[in-house]
Design goal:
By secondary structure, the protein is α/β, with parallel strands linked by helices. It has four domains: 206 residues, 3-Layer(aba) Sandwich (Rossmann fold); 205 residues, P-loop containing nucleotide triphosphate hydrolases (Rossmann fold), CATH 3.40.50; 172 residues, no CATH class; 120 residues, no CATH class. The chain contains 29 helices and 22 strands. It has a seven-stranded parallel beta sheet, sandwiched between helices. It has a six-stranded parallel beta sheet with strand order 11-16-15-12-14-13, sandwiched between helices. A four-stranded antiparallel beta sheet has the order 17-18-19-20. Strand 19 and strand 20 form a beta hairpin. It is globular and about 85 Å long. It starts with 6 loop residues before the first strand and ends with a helix.
């Protein structure tokens, strides 16, 4: 890490001055590749890397190339440093950069601020906690470079003027011509149903315009992502710290937990314990706190005072939900960590853990998603989430991968607690290669390889495909041919190629044929003929499908198809076609297979009804085609694209405004309640929040202007939960304001502006 005892780098008169205390000073006039490498090696040394890890050895030559990179390696392998060095290399090599400074959130003094840096880097991270951690680490690790960093996570802190002056930014603005690198952390979320389509649209738009660096610890098919992005794949399974797993059946899990805790405290090491729900994390922390306190060395008055002093230095309230419990638990050497905690509470827990004052931390999967808190051992209480669904395999191994602290431990261990041998077998088969596939049921778990989930495109339905088309038009103003080219370069189309019988062919040849299928989906098909039908069928050449039975009804028809040993049902109703398979996309092989058994006129009507995406966008006033053949979004289309919702949801919002909201002539409070109620209907979220229970607290915080601490005390709420709903509310209002203006709802538009103003003020004092 670059600290006051290490290397000081500052920019003076266009030169990069490097001062080594107790060593000779040297000034580099020529920022050549050789000198850049020298600087970067010193940075690595100061960050604690005495030698390159396997993934860094593979990556080092590519730092100075312009190729896209897909970097996949376990936690602690040094992936992030590779991305940071790429960003820093370009800043060092950019002679136009002169002492840009840290942002509004990190005050510092500086001169000669560059208005536009031509080597901007964008870091995209999936969670607020990760954004804060990344911003803080960049500030601390590279503070002597005087980087100007802007962290933006919502409309609250999005400041385009500030972004124009920054070298490293944390959100995707309309400044791509000034951006050289886009670094995507946790890119496996491409396969997340809620976040994936947005990330895919971003990557498709950026492909060929910037250098893409994608980072992930766990993924089953990194080759697919690398091939899709024409990137160099850098893949390593080497962990810096060896990791052992143990699946432990026990009718008395309490005995095993206390044993693991006791052994680690005795060896002055720490434990992370993951639970499926936040309630369990809190209950376990409280239940084991006295045992942890008894076993640890925190009984001394000095240690307790140190913890209390740190908590007070943060001005962490003592009497809010969660915080009161955290104060008591921390003094006993333990705590809990979940998404409901406020920013200060999370900061307190994480820093006390880093200082080894918290010995055992009880947490949910949120902590496994990238926040850098490794421990000697990890215990997984639940391999299922709060909704009783299995943990994603990638998330499971990320959690387990937190075991083993680089620089402190020589090994790490993860223990998965199960009730009996039956559950043990289920865990083995789900999260590891099964023993039948390897060397028998009696082989030790350490000898098996983890099983990861593949990531695939989440553009799995017609509405999402239409949303992507609208987004591409909004961002790129393409011609029809440009649009076909963009669509043929999506991860969605790559997945179709991979799933087809043509996956052994050249991808570029597939993309040429694929454009023909997109033509059919984008435009009306009056001239649809057998050749076009064959074009669609060629995308799904399957010889193992068979129609076994058809049932004709008065208004519908059912067609039964055998696919190997599985039977699926195709339903035809009023020019709509449905399939019982898990592929929600219209382009599943079963529906395409049925097409060749239907009259061409029926196929044409189905295609026009289900697709004709461009025509529907034009007819409904979302896009126009100019005299140059370029498609552009109308005002309505631009608003829809900026909101990031499907056309169906957009129309629902429009009707809701015009018929439900306007008709009641709401005051500001009633309008606020309307918005709180509608959020779950338009926002996809990984969190379960009963928004209606937040109506009164939000009213008191936003409308009455009461302090957030007063509100959460009164209503016994978690600060993180209240702020999450309010941030969603802020995003919704920011989208609805131009929509009401477009609809001519002048009074309502002004009310949204007023509501936005008071909400912004409330949030500004809360973060």
């Amino acid at each position: 890490m670059l600290n006051c005892q290490g290397v000081l780098l500052e920019r003076k008169a266009g030169k990069l001055k490097i001062t080594y205390w107790r060593k000779k000073e040297m000034v580099i006039n020529d920022l050549s590749r050789k000198n850049t490498i020298q600087i970067l090696k010193h940075i690595q040394a100061e960050k604690g890397f005495k030698k390159l890890t396997e993934i860094q050895k593979k990556a080092y030559p590519e730092i100075f190339s312009d190729r896209n990179l897909v970097v996949v390696a376990p936690s602690g392998a040094g992936k992030t440093l590779i991305a940071e060095l790429i960003a820093l290399k370009d800043l060092i090599s950019d002679n136009n950069v002169t002492t840009p400074i840290i942002t509004k959130n990190y005050s510092t003094q500086s001169k000669n601020v560059t208005e536009i840096c031509s080597s901007k880097t964008i870091f995209l991270v999936p969670l607020r906690a990760l954004a804060e951690e990344k911003a803080n680490s960049l500030v601390m690790d590279y503070r002597h470079f005087n980087l100007k960093i802007h962290m933006s996570m919502s409309e609250i802190d999005f400041n385009e003027e500030e972004i124009r002056k920054c070298t490293i930014i944390g959100r995707m603005p309309n400044l791509i011509t000034h951006v050289k690198n886009v670094i995507v952390d946790e890119f496996h979320l491409l396969g997340n149903q809620n976040r994936g389509p947005v990330l895919e649209a971003i990557l498709t738009t950026l492909l060929g315009k910037v250098r893409l660096i994608l980072l992930s610890a766990t993924i089953a098919n990194p080759e697919d992502v690398a091939k899709w992005l024409d990137a160099i794949l850098l893949h390593s399974e080497e962990r810096q710290i060896p990791l052992d797993y143990d699946i432990l059946p026990s009718l008395d899990p309490d005995k095993e937990v206390t044993r693991i805790i006791s052994n680690n405290i005795k060896n002055n090491s720490q434990v992370l314990i993951f639970s499926g729900t936040r309630t369990k994390a809190e209950e376990y922390a409280d239940y084991y706190s006295n045992f942890i306190h008894k076993k640890s060395k925190l009984t001394s008055k000095g240690e307790t005072q140190k913890i209390e002093a740190f908590l007070q230095s943060l001005s962490l309230p003592k009497d809010t939900l969660g915080n009161k419990q955290l104060y008591e638990l921390a003094k006993k050497g333990t705590a809990f960590h979940h998404a409901g905690l406020g920013r200060l509470a999370r900061k307190a827990v994480e820093e006390l853990f880093r200082q080894n004052l918290i010995k055992v931390l009880f947490c949910t999967e949120t902590l496994g998603a990238g926040v850098n808190l490794p421990a000697r051992e990890v215990i997984i209480f639940d391999a299922k989430r709060w909704n009783n669904e299995w943990l994603n395999r990638n998330v499971f191994h990320q959690i387990g991968g937190r075991a083993g602290r680089p620089g402190y431990d020589i090994y790490g261990k993860c223990t998965v607690l199960v009730s009996d041998s039956r559950e043990k077998k289920m865990i083995r088969q789900r999260f590891w290669q099964t023993y039948e596939e390897s060397s028998g049921m009696n082989s030790p778990l350490i000898s098996t390889k983890p099983r990861f989930d593949e990531i695939n495109s989440m553009l799995i339905c017609r509405d999402e495909l239409e949303k992507l088309v609208l987004s591409l038009i909004y961002n790129t103003h393409p011609t029809f041919q440009d649009l076909l080219k963009l669509l043929s370069k999506t991860f969605f189309d790559f997945n179709r190629w991979k799933a087809s019988k043509k996956k052994d062919s050249i991808l570029e040849e597939w993309q040429k044929e694929s454009k023909e299928s997109f033509k059919i989906l984008l435009k009306q098909s009056e001239d649809f003929d057998n050749d076009k039908l064959l074009g669609l069928e060629r995308l799904f050449l399957e010889s193992d499908l068979e129609i076994t039975k058809t049932i004709d009804g008065d208004e519908s028809q059912a067609i039964y198809i055998r696919d190997n040993k599985t039977q699926y049902t195709i339903s035809l109703e009023e020019d709509h076609i449905f399939c019982s398979c898990s592929n929600q996309s219209f382009l599943c092989k079963h529906r395409i297979f049925v097409f060749k058994h239907l009259p061409l006129n029926t196929v044409r009507r189905i295609l026009d009804k289900e697709f004709s995406i461009l025509e529907k966008l034009i007819v409904n006033g979302y896009i126009v085609e100019n005299t140059k053949g370029e498609f552009r979004t109308t005002t309505k289309g631009s608003i829809c694209a900026e909101m990031g919702v499907t056309r169906k949801k957009f129309e629902q919002l429009k009707n809701w405004l015009m018929y439900d909201v306007v008709s009641t002539n709401p005051n500001l409070t009633e309008l606020l309640y309307f918005c709180v109620k509608i959020i779950p209907k338009i926002e996809d979220s990984d969190y379960f929040v009963d928004n209606l229970s937040y109506k009164r607290p939000i009213y008191e915080h936003v409308i009455l202007g009461r302090e957030i601490l007063e509100v959460i005390r009164k209503h016994q709420l978690y600060e993180g939960d209240l702020l999450r709903v309010e941030v969603s509310l802020k995003s919704l209002i920011a989208a609805l304001t131009p929509l009401t203006e477009y609809l001519g709802l002048t009074k309502l538009c002004q009310q949204f502006k007023d509501l936005d103003k008071v909400l912004s003020e409330a949030l500004r004092h809360s973060f």
